[in-house]
């Protein structure tokens, strides 16, 4: 009898120690809240049925082919609807003819926006920073 009483008293002692000595994450943080519920599912909740043997058949929506939205990208792509780019090849004679026809004037170019001269103050002590 003494061995069973020692085992039960040791078990009680161990249970009382477990109540007072907690794991560090159970002292502070979200796990310390009495309403905390672990997010990990138990073994019975994890996968109730095998994916290959589903209890219900999947419902696949069907409709008239004319009213189904076309998900293909190339039918909605606006870049493919543009006319092809016209390309012209210039020969050397064409370029020389264009150069003779066009002469540039000063009025063809934009005006220079900075026309006033910047005046420096050479008498500034310390470069202007005091």
What this model shows, in words?
It contains 4 helices and no strands. It has 130 residues and is mainly α. It is flat and about 120 Å long.
In summary, what is this structure?
This protein is mainly α and 130 residues long. Helix content is 28%, strand content 0%.
Keywords:
28% helix, mainly alpha, flat, 130 residues
| Spans where pLDDT lies below 50 across 5 or more residues | none
Largest sheet: none
Strand residue content: under 5%
What share of the residues lie within helices?
Answer: 25-40%
Evaluate the radius of gyration: 43 Å
Could you tell me how far the N terminus lies from the C terminus, measured between alpha carbons in angstroms? 96 Å
Principal-axis shape: flat
**Number of alpha- plus pi-helical segments:** 4
Structural class designation? mainly alpha
Question: What do the pLDDT scores average to?
Answer: 78
Report the count of strand segments.
Answer: 0
Order of helices and strands: HHHH
Write the layout of secondary structure elements.
Elements: H1 2-20, H2 24-27, H3 43-46, H4 92-101
